[in-house]
Design a protein that fits this description.
Layout (H helix, E strand, L loop, with lengths): L9 H7 L11 E6 L3 E7 L19 H17 L7 E13 L8 E11 L3 E10 L2 E14 L16
Length: about 160
C-alpha cells in the first residue's frame, strides 16, 4: 500500500487494521500525510452498543472508547507504511489526556493524529478529537511495533483451542 487513495472507507481500513466490528471505531480516513498527520471520522449513532447511559442523562460515548478511536486513527497511519504491514502495533500509554465534553449519538467526531516522535519500533502521537470546531478530547499516545510471531492474527484461535 505505497499510495493511499482518499478517502479510505471502512473496507480499506479493515485491510490495514486487524480490528473488526464492533471494535473497529474508525469509519473513514479523509487526510493522510505519511509520517506526519492523519485525519479520520467516527460517526456516533444511537445503535452503538457501548454507549453509556445514566438515568436523566443523554447517552454518550465513553471516554475510553473515544480514546481507542483516536489510537486506531494513529495506528492506521503507522500500519499503512509498507515496512509495517506485517507488524502489530501496541498501545503503550497515554499522557496529558483531557476530555473536554461528551460525545452523543448524532455527533460526527473528526480525529486528528500528528507525529510527535517516530522511530523504527516506537513512537509518540498527539491526538485531538473534535465535534464541529470544539475539541472534545486530546492527549499524547505512545505506541510500539512488534513482530506478528507465528503469523496468527490477534484474537485468532488456532486448531487445538490455543490462541
Amino acid at each position: 500500500m505505497d499510495s493511499l487513495t482518499l478517502p479510505l472507507d471502512y473496507a480499506a481500513i479493515e485491510r490495514i487494521l486487524p480490528h473488526r466490528y464492533p471494535f473497529l471505531l474508525v469509519d473513514r480516513i479523509t487526510a493522510f500525510e505519511p509520517d506526519k498527520r492523519i485525519v479520520g471520522i467516527k460517526a456516533v449513532t444511537r445503535n452503538e452498543r457501548y454507549l453509556s447511559h445514566q438515568a436523566g442523562d443523554a447517552p454518550s460515548l465513553p471516554f475510553t472508547v473515544l480514546t481507542e478511536a483516536v489510537a486506531q486513527v494513529g495506528a492506521i497511519m503507522i500500519l499503512a507504511k509498507p515496512e509495517n504491514r506485517e507488524k502489530l502495533i501496541y498501545f503503550m500509554g497515554i499522557e496529558r489526556v483531557r476530555y473536554r465534553k461528551p460525545v452523543h449519538p448524532g455527533d460526527v467526531v473528526e480525529i486528528e493524529a500528528t507525529v510527535v516522535r517516530l522511530r523504527s519500533r516506537m513512537g509518540v502521537l498527539r491526538g485531538i478529537a473534535r465535534v464541529g470546531s470544539e475539541v472534545v478530547a486530546e492527549g499524547t499516545m505512545t505506541f510500539a511495533l512488534g513482530a506478528q510471531g507465528d503469523g496468527a492474527r490477534p484474537g485468532h484461535v488456532r486448531p487445538g483451542g490455543r490462541a
